[in-house]
Design brief:
Strand content: under 5%
Structural class: mainly alpha
Shape: elongated
Helix content: 55-70%
Radius of gyration: 22 Å
Order of helices and strands: HHHH
Length: 106
């Protein structure tokens, strides 16, 4: 269930800019890790494969692929992170509801 703050921001598509920027950066880090792991499973044995140069090239390729995915809208992780942070903030500042009737309401 969305907090009122997150629900309003989601409907308006207007999350706080600084929070959304950090969430997009985190999504970029996740995508970079994901693409790096994807490329690490490719076998590079052979006459022209392997070595330090290829490792460097693969890491740069993974980084650029992650940047392109992120720049083209990402995978939706940033918006979910932002919404979750807004919900957590709302929950932390909410006044707890106290049942004044005790544990056994009549």
């Amino acid at each position: 269930m969305l907090s009122p703050l997150a629900a309003t921001a989601s409907k308006q598509g207007a999350y706080p800019a600084a929070l959304m920027k950090k969430a997009k950066e985190l999504e970029g880090v996740f995508l970079n890790t994901l693409t790096s792991e994807m490329f690490s499973s490719i076998k590079t044995d052979g006459e022209f494969g392997g070595g330090f140069g290829e490792q460097t090239w693969r890491s740069m390729q993974a980084e650029q692929l992650a940047n392109q995915i992120s720049e083209s809208g990402g995978i939706g992780l940033a918006e979910n992170i932002t919404r979750s942070l807004l919900d957590a903030q709302a929950a932390a500042t909410a006044v707890p509801q106290v049942n004044l009737q005790g544990a056994y309401p009549q």
